[in-house]
């Protein structure tokens, strides 16, 4: 009988892993799969050994030592077991199992191994709020550091450190809200039902005995409209910890018309990377050929001569009013109507009939301006809006001032972004260094409408001028 017609057998009892196929002899310590492909040496291991190769990480084929033929000698691979092993390896359950296997021992013995003198020396390089947080973290640290830090925070000069320490307890107190004038947590009176209302409507979020004798932190939005810091707290807490801690940022958006002027305002808020971003769009119809007195009457209120639109605390030191007045001068005259042409007789101008009614901004007022002292950006535009004043639908120009601001993470009113927008920061805030190349306006518009807001950004105060009322400038 020829070699090709013989049944495939093992060559000997000692060479139980050397196989013979119909076309020749396969080398020892190798394997032929059921499909006829030759497998490497690392695949041909006994069933008693590990199923995973130590060199490549691949699963091995196993051969039964009791069978001697190729047909029954190589067992097919268990694909179900293979897929389940991959799913366990690539899933999050494997990470959880690994963490459970590698659970760290409690750190109390390590903390106790350090002497109290060393912990006292470490506390000298930390702030008072950090020392109080360390003492609250464990009983061992409390015995090492003592309660002197908590007693020191009761002093009036350490109020800021007390606020920073209490702000770290937000996660443990969802039904309470931190009151900054008295430095205590108060129970929320409108749990989950807080609404941002206008200034002259009584809207207490908690009952504080010092609320009548102190002013809660707030920010000026527009004329006769302010934003209390408590709503910034609620929005950022709800995003960071859950809905039971506050309200959504979308619920802060409002649309209203100023009762003392023709300005209309629209606000919207979003949270990006833990910070509350705000956009205020203010619109007002503007006539043509406006006089300098008319410009001031249109832009500024009569009381404190603040702008009707939203602005930061540094608007006097920059060129914001100059840019708005420059934009108003670019409003063109409306084309002459047929009735006005007939009234003028034969001396009418044909070019006035086809006058361009499109407003075009110049290089001084078309770009986005960023305040160098706080995270605020401005854009002044001229657009056409509907005019229904004469009983028929027409169009007229309007000036639109848009402000984007970063209000911070809502931890405390001493936050650097919130304090900079209100002009209450102790250290100088460099917005071009802190904000970076990504603009606040571009971040906001991309989050809201996936719109790439590509415009040049210039400084609102390029000359670094400091103006005041005392110097009459």
What is the oligomer described by this structure?
single chain
The rough form would be described as elongated
Low-confidence stretches: 1-49, 61-75, 90-94
Spatial strand arrangement across the major sheet:
11-12-13-16-15-14-17
Q: Tell me the strand percentage band.
A: 15-25%
Number of helical segments?
A: 17
Structural class: alpha+beta
Measured distance between first and last alpha carbons: 116 Å
Gyration radius over CA:
37 Å
Proportion in helices? 25-40%
In short:
By secondary structure, the chain is of the alpha+beta class. Helices cover 28% and strands 18% of the residues.
Notes on the protein architecture:
The chain is an alpha+beta fold. The chain folds into three domains: 20-94, no CATH class; 116-168, no CATH class; 248-459, no CATH class. Helix content is 28%, strand content 18%. The strands form six sheets. It has a seven-stranded mixed β-sheet, with helices on both faces.
Features:
seven-stranded mixed β-sheet; 473 residues; alpha+beta
Task: Give the SSE map.
Layout: E1 20-21, E2 24-25, E3 31-32, E4 38-39, E5 44-46, E6 61-63, H1 70-73, H2 79-90, H3 92-101, H4 108-113, H5 116-123, H6 128-137, H7 139-145, H8 148-152, H9 159-167, E7 176-179, E8 184-187, E9 218-222, E10 225-228, H10 229-241, E11 255-257, E12 264-272, E13 275-285, H11 292-299, H12 320-328, H13 338-343, H14 350-353, E14 368-370, E15 376-387, E16 394-406, H15 416-421, H16 431-434, H17 440-449, E17 457-459
Parallel strand pairs: 5-6, 14-17
Antiparallel strand pairs: 1-2, 3-4, 7-8, 9-10, 11-12, 12-13, 13-16, 14-15, 15-16
Helix pairs in contact: 6-7, 6-9
Biased composition (Polar residues): 46-55
Biased composition (Basic and acidic residues): 97-107
Region (Disordered): 45-76, 93-113
């Amino acid at each position: 009988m020829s070699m090709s017609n013989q049944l495939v057998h093992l060559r000997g009892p000692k060479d139980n892993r050397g196989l013979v196929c119909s076309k020749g002899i396969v080398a020892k310590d190798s394997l032929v799969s059921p499909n006829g492909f030759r497998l490497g040496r690392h695949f041909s291991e006994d069933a008693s050994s590990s199923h995973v190769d130590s060199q490549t990480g691949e699963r091995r084929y196993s051969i039964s030592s009791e069978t001697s033929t190729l047909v029954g000698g190589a067992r097919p691979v268990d694909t179900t077991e293979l897929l389940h092993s991959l799913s366990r390896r690539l899933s999050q359950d494997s990470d959880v199992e690994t963490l459970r296997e590698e659970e760290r021992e409690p750190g109390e013995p390590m903390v106790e191994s350090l002497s109290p003198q060393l912990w006292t020396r470490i506390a000298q390089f930390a702030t008072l709020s950090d020392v109080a947080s360390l003492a609250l973290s464990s009983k061992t640290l409390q015995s090492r550091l003592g309660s002197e830090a908590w007693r020191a925070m009761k002093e009036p000069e350490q109020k800021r450190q007390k606020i920073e320490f209490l702000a770290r307890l937000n996660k443990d107190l969802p039904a309470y809200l931190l009151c900054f004038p008295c430095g205590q947590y108060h129970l929320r009176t409108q749990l989950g039902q807080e609404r941002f209302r206008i200034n002259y409507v009584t809207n207490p979020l908690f009952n504080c005995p010092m609320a009548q004798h102190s002013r809660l932190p707030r920010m000026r939005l527009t004329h006769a409209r302010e934003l209390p810091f408590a709503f910034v707290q609620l929005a950022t807490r709800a995003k960071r910890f859950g809905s039971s801690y506050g309200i959504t940022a979308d619920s802060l958006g409002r649309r209203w018309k100023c009762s003392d002027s023709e300005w209309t305002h629209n606000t919207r808020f979003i949270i990006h990377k833990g910070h509350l971003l705000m956009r205020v769009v203010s619109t007002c119809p503007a006539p043509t050929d406006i006089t300098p007195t008319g410009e001031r009457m249109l832009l500024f209120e009569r009381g404190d001569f603040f702008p009707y639109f939203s602005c930061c605390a540094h608007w006097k030191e920059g060129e914001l009013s100059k840019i708005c007045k420059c934009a108003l001068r670019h409003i063109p005259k409306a084309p002459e109507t047929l009735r006005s042409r007939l009234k003028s007789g034969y001396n009418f101008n044909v070019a006035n009939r086809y006058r361009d009614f499109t407003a075009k901004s110049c290089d001084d007022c078309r770009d986005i301006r960023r305040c160098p002292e706080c995270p605020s950006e401005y854009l002044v535009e001229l657009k056409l809006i509907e005019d229904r004043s004469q009983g028929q639908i027409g169009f007229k120009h309007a000036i639109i001032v848009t402000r984007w601001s970063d209000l911070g993470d809502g931890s405390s009113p001493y936050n650097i972004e919130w304090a900079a927008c209100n002009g209450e920061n102790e250290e100088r805030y460099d917005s071009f260094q802190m904000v970076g190349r990504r603009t606040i306006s571009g971040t906001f518009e991309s989050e809201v409408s996936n719109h790439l807001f590509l415009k040049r950004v210039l400084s609102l105060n390029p000359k670094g001028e400091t103006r005041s009322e005392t110097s009459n400038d």
